[in-house]
Amino acid sequence: MAQRALRTCWTWLKTVPEGCWRHCNQRRRDKLVIVQRNMALTNLNTLGIAAKASYFAEVTSLDALATLLADTKLASLPRLVLGGGSNIVLQQDFAGLVVKIALRGVQCEALGESRLLRVAAGENWDALVKSCLQQGWYGLENLISIPGSVGAAPIQNIGAYGVELSDVLVAVSGWDLRENCLRRLSASDCELSYRSSIFKTHLLDQFIVTEVELKLSHSPSPNIRYQALADALPSGVDVTPELVAETVARLRASKLPDFRLEPNAGSFFKNPIIEASNAAELQAEHPQLVSWPMPDGRVKLAAAWLVDQCGWKGQRVDGVGVHPRQAIVLVNYEHCSGGNVLALAAAIQEAVSQRFGVALEIEPRIY
Ligand SMILES: Cc1cc2nc3c(=O)[nH]c(=O)nc-3n(C[C@H](O)[C@H](O)[C@H](O)COP(=O)(O)OP(=O)(O)OC[C@H]3O[C@@H](n4cnc5c(N)ncnc54)[C@H](O)[C@@H]3O)c2cc1C
């Protein structure tokens, strides 16, 4: 299919004050952005949904991002900021501008026994985790094998095997679309919580992450508080961060389908968090209920258990199905539309609501 390439003009409407941003001395050609029309997104979302974007641009520098945002023809269009596409559902063609963040670079500064990393948003998360381990910078090992970009990690405060991004995050920088300027938010400003942040609430669609700062440790301190991880470690050996990473990667590979072979978006539903009194009632009725106490006194339920109990594991409807080993992973076996994926999700939500009176919330962002 022919794609018409438009070149945005070289205007640089927003001047970044000197010294305020370390990336601002980019070469002039870095401002160039190529905007493509009718871009296929099938290979840019891990659910393999065959949707198109009316306009698509990949930005590799802050200057290019500023050029794109200053383009008056594109400014009024709906916008989708894209990383690795591993946490989105495209309901239909996206009638707007998709901005793929491809900023690259990692800087490291020693702070005593700690290391402060400044990582550009377009870096691959899993590659970062592996490279940190090789350098002897610890803290990310439990978060190995999570697909996607570094810039998306704070959006839903990624987490796995007992560690969340919030454990190592120092700050997030990016383009504030309300003020039209670059801004740095401290970790506490980001309001990170379970699979959520300010970028999903007050700053929804208002902030493009360009850089993430992480504090890692130079001395190993493996976190094996997550029971399934502790149980999977070989006995009688020293637990090192490398062993933790290896074990988490092995557990994940045994439980989660590879999206390149079985297109999926990881956990399709969040684990619901309910009041302790409601949890106690459910537990009395369903003694096998899988749950975890939360620090605030509420109780988190295992969404996978709820879905499994409703008989959905391994079921397929219209080319989309529930993975046979993971009840919260929906697989788009036949590269169907987002509508098919969401129809299956709605049927599961209805079943869980009917049986347990619990509302399941969809984790990926729907566009
Ligand atoms: C097999 C599999 C396993 C997974 N396992 C886990 C897991 O263990 N834990 C976990 O937390 N998640 C998991 N996920 C979900 C997903 O990998 C993470 O949410 C990841 O951070 C998404 O990154 P991405 O770059 O692909 O984001 P995208 O899917 O491209 O985007 C997700 C959302 O973030 C926004 N966004 C992306 N980049 C930026 C940016 N630079 N600035 C502003 N907004 C942005 C997008 O607009 C969108 O709303 C899994 C997914 C898959 C497919």
Give me a quick take on this structure.
By secondary structure, the protein is an alpha+beta fold. Helix content is 22%, strand content 26%.
List keywords for this structure.
alpha+beta; 5-stranded antiparallel β-sheet; 367 residues; globular; Uridine Diphospho-n-acetylenolpyruvylglucosamine Reductase, domain 3; 5-stranded mixed β-sheet; Uridine Diphospho-n-acetylenolpyruvylglucosamine Reductase, domain 1; 22% helix; binds flavin-adenine dinucleotide; Uridine Diphospho-n-acetylenolpyruvylglucosamine Reductase, domain 2; 21 strands
Helix and strand content put the structural class at alpha+beta
Contiguous low-pLDDT stretches (5 residues minimum) are 1-27
- Averaging pLDDT over every residue, what do you get? 92
Strand order of the largest sheet: 1-2-3-6-4
State the CATH class of the largest domain.
Alpha Beta
Distance between the termini: 24 Å
- Provide the CATH architecture of the largest domain: 2-Layer Sandwich
Topology, number of strands: 21
Radius of gyration: 21 Å
The topology string of helices and strands comes to EEEHHEEEEEHEEEEEHHEEHEEHEEEHE
List the ligand species: flavin-adenine dinucleotide
- Tell the overall outline: globular
Strand content: 25-35%
CATH topology of the largest domain: Uridine Diphospho-n-acetylenolpyruvylglucosamine Reductase, domain 3
Number of domains: 3
